[in-house]
Amino acid sequence: MSGAARAADPGPAAAIDPAAEPGADPASDTPAARIARWCGAYAPLPGVPDEMIGPDGTIRPAWARFLDRLGALPESEIVARFASAGRHIHDTGVAYRVYGETAERDWPLGVLPLLVEADEWRAIAAGVAQRAALLEAVLADVYGEGRLTAEGLIPAAAVAASPEYLRPLHGVAPPGGRHLHLYAVDLARGPDGGWRVLADRTQAPSGTGYALENRLVLARALPDVYNALDVERLAPFYHAFRAGLAAAAQRVEPRICLLTSGPYSDTYVEQAVLARYLGLPLVEGDDLLVQDGRLHVRTVAGLKRADVLWRRVDGDFVDPLVLNPTSRLGVPGLVEALRAGTVAMGNMPGSGLVEGAWLSPFLPALAERLLGEALRLPGLPAWWCGDPAQREAALARLDDLTLRPAAQQAQGAFTSRAFGAARDPDETARLAAALRDRPGDWVAHERIALSTAPVWDGAGLVPRRFVLRVFAAWTPDGWEVMPGGFCRIAEHADVQPVAMGAGVRAADVWVLSDAPVEPATMLPPADRAPVRRVPGLLPSRAADNLFWFGRHLERAEAMVRLATALLNGAGAVSLAREDVDTSARLRHLLRAWGAVPSAEGPAALLAAQALSGGEFWGSALAHARSARGNAASLRERLSGEAWRAVSQLLAALDPAGPADSEAALLDRAERALAVTAALSGLAQENMNRAGGWPFVELGRRLERAVNTCRFAGVFAGDGASTDDLGVLLELVDSRISYGARYILGVALAPVRDMVLLDPYNPRSVAFQVERIRERLADLSSLRRDGMPERQTRLVLALSGEIASTEADTLSPAVAEAWEARLWSVAEAVAARYFPGTSEAERPETLVALA
What we know:
By secondary structure, the protein is an alpha+beta fold. Helix content is about 45%, strand content about 10%.
C-alpha cells in the first residue's frame, strides 16, 4: 500500500494500539479484551444489512470465529504481519491506474476479508451460474436466429441502438460454440438481506487477477487464521477456466494468448498477474497478425499460431478493418479469422451488449422462456422507458427512481441524476420531457442503499458500504463459479464503492467451507506433466522491451560512474593542469550525453544533475525511469525481486534536495551501483537462458561496449595523462584488475589493452563482443540457407578485428570506428527481431511456423 493509502486507513497498527484507548491497561490485554475493544463502537447503519452483525444484534458465527482467531495473535505480531503485507504490495508492484491518470497507485488492499458462509455461497453460486447461462442464451439468439426480438421478449429497438451490438458479428458462429467464457456480476444486499444484481459484466470482465493477488497477500499475512477457517481455495477455478479456453480450440495442445491494450491499461498489472499465473503469453495488437485466415503471434522465432485469444480489449476495438477504424489496439483481419473458425475468443466481440441497462427489466421473463425456471438472482426493479406501459409506470414514480441511459453499463446506477428531495422541480420536468421525447434511451430503476461490512478506521471496526463481484467460468463440465471474488469497500461513510479510486479499497472474499479444505495448486498431476526444454513464446515486442531494459540499466550505471568520477576529482587536493583537463573531459561528456544542461558549474551541482536530474534525458534517473517503463511492459516475465530492485534503483537516484553534500551524492551513487549490480546478478542467475535472457544480455553488452569505446576515445588519447587513464579504469570498473596485473602504475598501452582488447576482462570491449556473438548464436534463425544474418556477420567481422589488433596500434579513431560498428549491430538486431522496423526483415515475411 502506498503512503497515502496507509494514511487513509492506518490499519491494525493504529486500531489495536492500547495507548489509543485512554486508561487502557496493557496487563489486561487478553484476546477477549482486544476483540471487545475492536468491536465496542461498531454500530450497523439503520435499515441496512450488515455482514458482521446479524438482525438480532449479535456477531454472526463466521465473524465470531474470525475474530477469535485474530484476537489470539499478539498485537505486535498483527502489526508486523500487515506492515509486511503492505511492503509486499509496494515492492512487487501490485498496482492499478485510475482511468485518465498516467501514474500507477499501489493496490489498496484492506486488512479484513469479506466472510461468506458455505450455505449462503451455494445459493449465490447457483444464481450466478444460472445468470451466466441465461445471458449466453440471449447472446446466441441475438447474434443468431433472432427469435427473442421476433417474439417481442426483448425490444429490437434497444438492441439496434446499443453501441455494443456489433452488426458485422451477426451470423458468426463463435468458434468453440460459446460467446461467453468468463462472466462477472456485481452484487449487493437488498433491504431484506437477499442479494441483488447491480451490474452484469460480459464485455471483458476485470478483477480475477486482483482477486488472486488479494488472496495471495492476505493468506500470506494470516496463514494460521486462513487455514483454521477452512477457506475455499481459488486454484481449481483458474485451472477450470484455462481448461475451458483450451476446449474451445481446434488443436489438442492449443496456444492461448491474453490480449491486452498495453501497459497504460487501467488493469495492466492484473493482466500480467493472470498471464504469469495461467502460463499465457501476454500480447498486444501489434504482436498479432492474421495470415491466410489464421491468427499468429509475431515472435523472435517467426510466426506462431494462436488458437485462443482471451481479450481484455473492448469488442469494438479488436479489428480496425471491420469494426472501429480508429482502433490501434486490435488486429486487422481478426473478424475474418473468427468467421473462418480458426481462432476462438473469450469473450466474443459484441458480448458487451447484455451489460446494458435496457435488458434488466426483461430478464425474469427470459429466464422462464429460455431456462424454464425463475431468476434466482434478481436485479433492482427496473423499467425500460421505450415500452409505453413501463414508461408510464416510471413517470408515476419518477421522484423515487434513478435514471440511467439504456445502453450504459455498470456504475450508472450510482452516478445518475438526483432523485427525490434532491431533485428540483425543473430537473424533474426536464427528465419527464426527455422520457417522452426519446423514451428508449432511458431505464428507470429503484435505488438501493448498499449494505455494510467491517473495516478498520484507526480506532476499531466500523461499518462501510461494499459491492461484491463474483466470477463464473465456462468449463467442459459447465459453468464453475469462483469460491470467492473481488470486493470493493468504502473507506469512509459517504463513499459509494462503485469503482476503484479515492476512498475505495479492495477486500479478499473468504468462502468458509463446512468441511475440511484440501490444499490446491495450479500444477498439473505428475502423470500429465510432459517434460519440455523448448523456450516459451517470446513476442517481438517483449524482446524489444527486454533489449532496452538492459540498455537503459547499463546507461544508468555509466552515468552514475561518470558522476562519481567527477565528484572524486573535485575532492582531490591537486592543482595540476592535467586534473583540470580530466575534469573538463568528464564535464563535456556529461553534457554530450544529455545528463547536464551545461558543462560549467560546481562539480557537486553537475553530479547531482547527472544522477537525479529527471528533467535531463541523459541523467541516471531518466534512464532508470526508462528501464522501469520497459519493466512495466514485462511484468509477466520479471520476478518480484527484479521489480523490487528496479524500484530500489529509482529510490536511490531520487533527488533528496538541492542541499545534497558531496558525501551524500557519493552515498547515493554507491547505492545505485549496488542495485545495478544486483540487477545484473538477477539476470545472470535467475532468468532462464531459453527465455528472454539473451535480449537483456544483448542490450547490456552492446551498451557497455559502446560506452567503453566512448570512454576510451575520450580518456585514452595519445596524450592521455595519468589522471585520464585512472578515470578510464574507474569508469570501466577495472582499476583493481589493472593493479593486480601491473605494479608500476598506469601506462597508455596497458590501459588500452585492458579496456579494449583483453578477452579476460569482463568490462572490456573484446569481452562484450564475444558475449554478443554467443547470444546471437543462441537465437533462432529465420533463414534456411545456412548463411549468417547481418547482425552476426557484423559481430564476426568486429570480433576478428579486435582479436588481431595490438594495443600499440590503437588510437581514439579506432575506438570511435568500433563504436559506430557496434551501433550498426544494435540497429541490425532491432531490424531483425523487433516490431516497427523494415518490412523486409519482419519475421512474417520469412517463415510461418506452427
